[in-house]
Amino acid sequence: RNLLWREEPVVLIVGPEHRWAGRKTIRPEALVEEKILGGEKGTGTGRILSEFLGDLAASLTISQTLGSTEAVKEGVKAGLGVSLVLKGAVREELLLGSLCEISLRGVRLKKGIRLVTSSDLPASSVASRFCEFARKRAA
Hints:
By secondary structure, the chain is of the alpha/beta class. Helices cover about 25% and strands about 30% of the residues. The chain has 4 helices and 7 strands; from the N terminus they run βββαβαβαββα. The protein has helices spanning about 45-55, 70-75, 90-95, 125-139, and strands at about 1-15, 25, 35-40, 60-65, 85, 100-105, 110-115. The strands form 2 sheets. Strands 1, 2, 5, 6 and 7 form a 5-stranded mixed beta sheet that branches. A two-stranded parallel sheet has the order 3-4. Strand 3, helix 1 and strand 4 form a beta-alpha-beta unit. The model has no long low-confidence stretch (mean pLDDT about 90).
């Protein structure tokens, strides 16, 4: 089974020393000028960018693909580039000011988080019960 659990906002993050750090929004076209740090392969960020930014996504420069969201956050803090991450993954850094969130004007990026289990699992299994619990909690 493959169920949509919830949708999570995807946000643009920059380091506190970045030239955009004090801004609330930027035009999506401004991303073309920046090095973008990517996370784990297969996470779907490229697909999300294509879906929401259309042809502009092909013009973006992914300078490095790092192995985890934590590595991406550290790279952005160090000034190696900017990135797009799930907002839930940077809540603490945004509160502390070690990362800054900037909105893309006219674009609301979001990513569907899915619960995936084998269709062979009985409804009474721990995995099935957890998925049902998580789905109800998100609603």
